[in-house]
Amino acid sequence: MRLQEKVIFITGGAKGIGGAAAKVCAGYGGKIVAVDLLEDRLRQTVDEIKAAGGDAIWAVADVTKRDQVKAAIQKALDQYGRIDCLFNAAGVDRIGGFLDMTDDEYDFNMNINVKGSFICCAEAARVMIPNKKGRIINTSSIAAVREEAYNGTYCMSKAAVSMMTRVLALELAPHNITTVAIQPGNIETDILRESFTNRGKAEGKDVREFYAEMEATIPMGYIGRPEEIAEVVAYLCDDRSAYIDGNSILIAGGKIMA
Ligand SMILES: NC(=O)c1ccc[n+]([C@@H]2O[C@H](COP(=O)([O-])OP(=O)(O)OC[C@H]3O[C@@H](n4cnc5c(N)ncnc54)[C@H](O)[C@@H]3O)[C@@H](O)[C@H]2O)c1
Hints:
Number of helices: 8
Distance between the termini: 31 Å
Strand content: 15-25%
Keywords: Oxidoreductase
Helix content: 40-55%
Domain Ketoreductase: 6-190
Strand order of the largest sheet: 3-2-1-4-5-6-7
Radius of gyration: 17 Å
Bound molecules: nicotinamide-adenine-dinucleotide
Protein name: 3-oxoacyl-[acyl-carrier protein] reductase
Number of domains: 1
Organism: Dendrosporobacter quercicolus
Family: Belongs to the short-chain dehydrogenases/reductases (SDR) family.
Order of helices and strands: EHEHEHEHEHEHHHE
């Protein structure tokens, strides 16, 4: 992977898939700006990158707050002078059946997953356009194409992220900015653990039973690791993947075939 000198701005970069992408991309020479709500975890991730000889900074920002996103982008520009790649990994999954979900719970999933990505895409594109080059990577989900009971607003939010990616590709390609989404399957992170616990409960099952049922839906037979997603993200940050534009890439151990 050729990421030397690439400035990669990662939301949700404190831990999970975003944290793994920060470490993997730094390992390939990228300069990382890790952005999240969780200051302690951000410091930890950045310290690990630096200890391994990499280059990274962090910024605390809520992706749903445009001012905070702009401030984080400014911090990236002050440190590195530009942003080459945006990886939107910040996301949440508030579980709930359609009939039980409150308006606040709906807003929580939609605001962070859709509006947060919308704001970060727009603000990053604004600073990429003068450079006539850029790469945006959004995080959709297998849930965008494979319906999940008791997880409706999450599925809806991720379908919106995939469509946002298609529209952005049309609008930004003339500026030599390419846009792509990843659609992870079931990946071992805090979101998955919480989601499986609550979906299991909603279906009257214990967590281990629900895990086993979910694993059985994955042809490769195991829940993926964040690093397996991070390697794809690194490839998507590499100029050699630039012709991949507008689509969503499923990374799910064969699950869509199950
Ligand atoms: N784990 C899976 O199985 C899976 C599958 C498909 C898609 N995804 C998506 O991958 C992305 C990363 O999730 P993960 O699995 O690594 O979970 P995670 O909980 O470990 O990471 C999510 C990160 O987003 C941050 N975040 C949440 N709200 C934020 C906000 N308003 N502003 C800034 N940061 C915020 C959290 O603090 C956390 O660090 C999410 O978009 C998620 O929907 C995960």
